[in-house]
Amino acid sequence: MDYSDIQTIEHDVLVVGAGGAGIRAAIECADKGLSTGIISKSLLGKAHTVMAEGGIAASLGNVDSRDNWKIHFRDTMRGGKFLNQWRMAELHAKHAPDRVRELEEWGAVFDRTDKGLISQRNFGGHRYPRLAHVGDRTGLEIIRTLQDFCVHQSIATHMECTGLDLVLDGDKVSGLVGYWRDTGRFVLFKTKAIILATGGGGKAWKVTSNSWEYTGDGLGMAYRAGAELIDMEFTQFHPTGMVWPPSVKGILVTEGVRGDGGILLNSEGKRFMFNYIPEKFASETADTEEEASRWLEGDKEARRPPELLTRDVVARAIKKEVEAGRGSPNGGVFLDIASRRPAAFIKKKLPSMYHQFKELAEIDITEEPMEVGPTLHYFMGGIRVNSDSQQTNVPGLFACGECAGGMHGANRLGGNSLSDLLVFGKLAGDGAANYINSLTDQLDCSNEEVSKIIKAATDILNREEGKNPYLVHEELQSILQTYVSIVRTGEELASGLEKLQALKADINEVFAHASAQYNPGWNEALDLKNLIITAEAVTRAALIREESRGAHTRLDFAGERVEGLEYNIVIKKTESGMHAEKIQRDDPPKELANIAFASLKELEGENLGA
Amino acid sequence: MERNFKIWRGDAEKGEFKNYAVKLEQGMVVLDAIHRIQVEHANDLAVRWNCKAGKCGSCSVEINGRPKLACMTRMNEFSPEEVITVQPMKTFPVIKDLVTDVSWNYEQNKMIPPFKPRKKKNGIDHVMYQQDVERIQEFRKCIECYLCQDVCHVLRDQDKKEKFVGPRFMIRLASLEMHPLDIDDRIPKIKNDFGSGMCNITRCCTDVCPEHIQITDNGIIPLKERVVDRFYDPVRWIYNKLFGNGAKQE
Ligand SMILES: Cc1cc2nc3c(=O)[nH]c(=O)nc-3n(C[C@H](O)[C@H](O)[C@H](O)COP(=O)(O)OP(=O)(O)OC[C@H]3O[C@@H](n4cnc5c(N)ncnc54)[C@H](O)[C@@H]3O)c2cc1C
Ligand code: SF4
Ligand code: SF4
Ligand code: FES
């Protein structure tokens, strides 16, 4: 085949994305003897994973020995409102402790218990202190550990290299076309398998904790190649983002603040979360301030404070308080740890929060409460994969980490993402190796496909004039912020969808000045075609789930419906455009159903070993 | 209120400062202003960033001559008349505008012998106490912004990149050498290959570190001391090796 003057790099497997999931997958591939490459939009070590704060969930049982994988699994299913893929939640809970210990073996230095073991902190929805952490910079510790380990494996790292589209040979994946940011030149990776680990698409919203990288690239590439997306209606709004000053609106305030004792107050100084305890969690949640305080002091009989209910519950409660006129001056509520913990404790346990508020908002969180409000944080939905192999319905295409869907169901528990990355990163590596070992075809990348991808990208630069990509992006963000927000109605979603359809014309006309060399305007323009697919998928899925469950709240369909448990929503590309449909869920395996519906007492005593 | 900026535009071959005016919003940081310029005046203005909260170390530039994170530099640090000058880090080759080629740093990291843990005592868990990990946790806060590398005169003015790995990697070495579980010995390499002798303790690196890591006092000086013990006081080293904790000196 003739690719004229395009640079071509060959690997058995290419991992797209160098966050926790991508690096862990690459390590596994290299370990299995595959020639492995990894690409990322940013420099190595700068992915979203670096920003994770609170911790990584694994039932090590170091702080409370009653914990075990079954309780972690049960918490995850309950948090996900039973829409999770059962097998994924099982694998996750079972493998997470090994993945955390493996990090320690590779040099990670977690905070310690008095006995010298990995310490664990409380987080929303987790029955026991379960999050291994390093102050509030856990993600940094994890990515640096993986990064420093992976540079000594035989993995080719290609930094600041953005994937544009997958190349197929027949129905199988055979490569990917991307470009180098620094030169703007194109590159073709010829591969036998590809693992997508590109993260979510939070940049479709205005108020988000996500960075410029989160434009749903993996979702867009997979969709265009014929892969299915699942659970896209479930977008997590984290209850505590910064609300002031305007320029930092959306930046995350870790749940660790509440895990370590922080409380939420309204403008009347009332601890309002006591008014929002859902019936399902009532038996496990403290109903008086006195009991919540005992819990904080370590009384094992006391129940958990309501501030640690799952994120969907807390985010909606904050929204209601603000709407009822009991918000803080800048449209949030107060998060107070100053009056609960000594300054030295706060600085030790939450150093980066201390720093962030001090420098960006001129607030000393050891003295004053913070102002916080919901911010778009995480995609539960994503590319649909087989629970064991992580393979999509496109042969040779795998996905793991935030860009894959199914593990978290309708709502993710905090700390379950970092563990998800490692567990499923490894499994995706295994899956790709098995696939490649049984692959008999010689794959090729057709000149025609490669040229088509490149032409679409260069058209943006070659136009005489056109739309400003930044402004088109702002428009898309304001559509989702308004019509596909934390509380939704059918009417709003339908208008949102209409507006998105109209915006497609603008996206086809975006124009980037100047050359392709390190040109953020051009890069932004290229990301838009993935953002719009992501945005449309969320809106379509949200429109047909006519109930409220987990992170998806419909004002016109309040409450969970029994039939809502019977399906997941799948998005795919058809001749006539994007199609969303409900697919029947399988009945859970009996043993897993038993665990998920068991009482805590039945599971607590079990000594399950590792 | 409008504020005036001078931003370096260009590539490896040539470049110049260009003037831009930006309307201020409450609480803005320099990175926000750069983003406004991108949207309104220069779509192709190159700058790196990710987290916008001082956690990823992407947005390192020189602001009014000082190496800083653009996302953590508030506009109200400057007086209203001051023109704010933003230029790329000087120590590394320019790619475009505010973006430099920092790949040299990744090459240094790769040369460092990796972590080598001792065996687990009970086969399941490593035991380490908080007081023993605290000092390396300080080094592990590093966000790889390379501002310390940018300011270190050995790299910046003398351009001795082939002789000295720079402060960032000295503390990475310190974090390995002082790791309670690590059993490798990097002291000879620290002296011979990584150039511990090149640092003359000016502490400029510590001054610019956005994570407030005591690079010089807690990292580089103790490593220099270990080198001295090993090469100039071998008796003490052998004593430590026999009676101290494992192969490491305390
Ligand atoms: C502020 C913040 C705090 C968080 N705190 C926690 C926490 O305490 N606990 C927890 O469990 N979770 C937390 N999360 C969530 C968690 O960090 C993320 O879900 C997780 O890091 C995602 O990891 P990933 O490997 O899937 O993707 P990422 O780490 O985001 O990596 C994505 C990678 O894909 C690359 N990429 C994307 N598109 C392309 C393309 N087109 N071509 C090439 N490369 C591409 C990117 O460059 C990047 O390298 C937090 C998230 C945020 C934003
Ligand atoms: S103290 Fe040493 S490493 Fe730091 S800037 Fe000075 S010479 Fe460079
Ligand atoms: S030591 Fe400090 S200044 Fe140097 S790279 Fe790390 S965080 Fe940046
Ligand atoms: S953008 Fe991450 S440190 Fe500035």
What's a quick, concise take on this entry?
With 610 residues, chain A is α/β, with parallel strands linked by helices.
Structure description:
The complex is a heterodimer of chains A (610) and B (250). By secondary structure, chain A is α/β, with parallel strands linked by helices. Chain A has 3 domains: 3-235 and 377-438, FAD/NAD(P)-binding domain (3-Layer(bba) Sandwich); 237-375, Succinate dehydrogenase/fumarate reductase flavoprotein, catalytic domain (Flavocytochrome C3, Chain A, domain 1); 447-564, Fumarate reductase/succinate dehydrogenase flavoprotein-like, C-terminal domain (Methane Monooxygenase Hydroxylase, Chain G, domain 1). In chain A, 36% of the residues lie in helices and 16% in strands. In chain A, helix 3 (86-105) crosses helix 12, helix 5 packs across helix 16 (520-544) and helix 14 (469-483) runs parallel beside helix 16. Chain B starts with a strand and ends in a 7-residue tail after the last helix. A 5-stranded mixed β-sheet of chain B has the order 2-1-5-3-4. A two-stranded antiparallel ribbon of chain B has the order 6-7. Chain B folds into 2 domains: 2-98, Roll (Ubiquitin-like (UB roll)), CATH 3.10.20.30; 103-243, Alpha-helical ferredoxin (Fumarate Reductase Iron-sulfur Protein, Chain B, domain 2, Orthogonal Bundle), CATH 1.10.1060. Chain B contains 10 helices and 7 strands. Chain B has helices spanning 30-40, 103-111, 130-140, 147-151, 153-156, 167-177, 187-192, 204-208, 215-232, 234-243; strands spanning 2-10, 15-23, 60-63, 66-69, 84-87, 94-96, 99-100. Chain B is elongated. Chain B has 250 residues and is an alpha+beta fold. Classes of the chains: A alpha/beta (610), B alpha+beta (250). At the A-B interface, helix 3, helix 4, helix 11, helix 14 and helix 16 of A face helix 1, helix 2 and helix 3 of B. FE2/S2 (inorganic) cluster (FES) binds at residues 49-52, 54-59, 69, 71 of chain B.
